[in-house]
Amino acid sequence: MACFSRLQSRFLFFLIASMLFFEISKAGGEGSIRPEACDYRCLAASHQMPRLFFCSKYCAKCLCVPSGTYGHMEERPCYDNWTTKEGKPKCP
């Protein structure tokens, strides 16, 4: 009976550890909207009115933002794939 209890405790430890790992690895990934991150990135944009409009639109569409206030778009494919007619990045 003691062996079964030890097996149960190991299983529970593994289960909890794996749940924590997956929760940490998903944080901030595609599809995880964080309104404060969108606000931080969008409010730092130059040319406030047009950029704020489009930045908010992309936040709503992509459900995520890259880290920081500019660049790092390769972190989020949804942002990275949006380009202008000239092939320049569309998102701030």
Features:
single chain, 92 residues, mainly alpha, 2 domains, 4 helices, GASA, gibberellin signaling pathway
Concise synopsis of the structure shown:
The protein has 92 residues and is mostly helical. The chain has 4 helices and no strands. The model is unreliable at 24-31 (pLDDT under 50).
Description:
Belongs to the GASA family. Keywords: Gibberellin signaling pathway, Signal. InterPro entries: GASA. This protein is mainly α. The chain has 2 domains: 1-30; 35-80, no CATH class. It has helices at 2-26, 35-43, 48-62, 77-80. The termini are far apart.
Domain unit count: 2
Tell me the helix content. Answer: 55-70%
- Tell me the series of helices and strands, N- to C-terminal: HHHH
Q: What is the typical, i.e. mean, pLDDT? A: 68
Q: What's the structural blueprint in terms of helices and strands?
A:
Layout: H1 2-26, H2 35-43, H3 48-62, H4 77-80
Signal peptide: 1-27
GO biological process, one term: gibberellic acid mediated signaling pathway
Keywords: Gibberellin signaling pathway, Signal
